[in-house]
Design a protein that fits this description.
The structure is a single chain. By secondary structure, the protein is mostly beta strands. It has one helix and six strands; from the N terminus they run E-E-E-E-E-E-H. A six-stranded antiparallel sheet has the order 1-6-2-3-4-5, with no helix packed on it. Strand 3 and strand 4 form a beta hairpin. The chain is elongated, with a radius of gyration of 18 Å.
């Protein structure tokens, strides 16, 4: 059985997700240089991370950040021009669960949803 999902990437300069939404976020930045004495920014990257978007985030250090993306480690990133070293260039809504029109299933419905996905039902 092959399950495929399509995503629609949205340019973070043009539109942001609704607050509280978990998203796939294309993040651009630079890894620290291998040589600490290097003057360059390090190796450039562009990768996809799972994050959520919020219109107001209260960081552990007590600071407040508006319109930002936060990853599971609490790292805060902004759209381009937002002031973070790593910018979220694009975002996409997460796909639905396999064989389901939902992104979340909880409680007593989980086992039936898993069975349906494993059996290839729609």
């Amino acid at each position: 059985m092959s399950l495929q999902a399509m995503v629609e990437w949205v340019d973070a300069r043009e539109r942001l997700p609704r607050p509280g939404i978990p998203v796939a976020a294309a993040t651009h930045g630079f890894y620290p240089p291998d040589d600490p004495d290097s003057e360059g920014p390090g190796e450039e990257f562009w990768l996809v991370l799972s994050m959520y978007f919020t219109d107001r985030h209260f960081a552990e250090d007590g600071s407040t950040h508006d319109n930002c993306f936060v990853d599971s480690d609490g790292v805060i990133r902004f759209p381009p021009g937002g002031g973070s070293a790593e910018a979220v260039t694009h975002w996409a809504a997460l796909p639905t669960l396999p064989g389901s029109p939902h992104t979340v299933v909880t409680g007593t419905d989980v086992q039936a949803a898993l069975r349906q996905a494993y059996e290839g039902g729609s």
